[in-house]
Amino acid sequence: MINNKIQKKAMRGLFLCMVLSLCVALPLLEAGEVSVRGGKGSWHLKVDGESFYIRGVGCGLASGREGQDYLKLAQELGANTVRTWGTDQGDQEYLDRAAAYGLKVCAGIWLNYADENGRFSYLRNKEYKSAKKKEVLEYVQKYKDHPAILLWGIGNECIFFTKDEKEKVALCRFMEELIQEVHRIDPAHPVIYASAGICDLKYLVQYVPSLDIVGINEYGSIRTAHGNWDYLGFDKPYVFTEYGPFLNIDSRRDEHSKGVELSDENKANIYKSFTEQIHSFKGYNLGGFAFHLGETTQESMTWWNINQGDYKRPSYWTIYQCYTGIEAPKRASRIKKFTLSRTKGLEPGEWFEVNVVLEPADIEGLVFEYAVSSSEENILRYYVNDYVPAQVSGEGSRVKIRAPLQKGVYRVYCFVRDEKNNVISANKSIRVESQQNIGL
């Protein structure tokens, strides 16, 4: 473990040296002015005097757990902007690396939603508001001249997750005060808030007039979101701050009441449809951020990620084609069928069979990998689930897997990788019914 940490630090140091060398070789970059221009139907961003339309991807971490370079993957995707969610993510290293890759950043600033115990109350907790305001303004002051900064993203779905109506209004008024302060410190970069679908829009239009751009996290209907924005009469454009496959709560449930994850093909089709619809409303919106590049584990290990480490999923290539206009490489195969011999009534440590059918089935050079993870859902955290130890017997498309030793519901995955760094996957849930002391 210690050696791995030393190696990772050494790799990061080597990368930063490369970035510094690149900066020496190139003219010194300075932060440019970003502004919203035009009117309804013709709104656009101006960056250093040039029109800029966001081809974005949510990318909370610059590096993966195994040292993967996610900002490089964003650049290869054809993205010109990445989005973070908190000040802990968009740090100096993140912004420097983004600039080195020619990427702009919507720098996220996390605001807690008001909770019932009052720890994050916007009505009663002056200490929290004071500390949060200090954090936000110091962050803006520190990075306002960084060449990677495009927008300040203040708040993400926190109005929606605040249940008390008076707290919602108090939160909005706190945001309005905060945005005015940010404008005073940095008039050169617009401010955006990310609404939970259309749920927060009515509060923004009523209580947060200083907001420059309306952000919408949308996993249902692009046209419905556009229609609601239009109906509410905003005098400012919007950006789809997140978009992707359907939410867990909108998905079909399996026998264990877990969301059934869409196939790779269905996910890719949704990204294609949503990206094209967003572009069709250009002039009303300023672009969008596909969700997600990296390794967020909300709902499952694969629900929204368009990659798996350095490997690229079908959705990655679909977005690539939309962003670059270049035809994506042909995928070698797809998972036609993924079956488990047992999905419930499993004893701890019991073996069950897994069978994978590919189409076409005769592709050479494919590598099969199997894994088991926890199956938590509907939790607003970046890392929710993780892999659990799992024994696999056999290799290829037909193997046996030993059930976890603890009672609970888990997800079982199959990953199939090819020689060109592509990956396809499928998963199903299982239930371990009882807990016993079973030896390994």
Written overview of the protein:
- 29% of the residues lie in helices and 26% in strands.
- It has 440 residues and is an alpha/beta fold.
- It has two domains: 30-324, Glycosidases (TIM Barrel, Alpha-Beta Barrel), CATH 3.20.20; 334-432, Immunoglobulin-like.
- Strands 4-5-6-7-8-9-10-11 form an eight-stranded parallel barrel, surrounded by five helices.
- α9 (264-280) packs parallel to α10 (314-324).
- The radius of gyration is 23 Å and the shape is globular.
- The model is unreliable at 1-29 (pLDDT under 50).
Q: What's the shape?
A: globular
Q: How confident is the prediction overall: mean pLDDT?
A: 91
Strand order of the largest sheet: 4-5-6-7-8-9-10-11
By CATH, the architecture of the largest domain is named Alpha-Beta Barrel
Which consecutive residue ranges, at least 5 long each, have pLDDT under 50? 1-29
Largest sheet: 8 strands, parallel, barrel
The counted number of beta strands is 21
Helix content: 25-40%
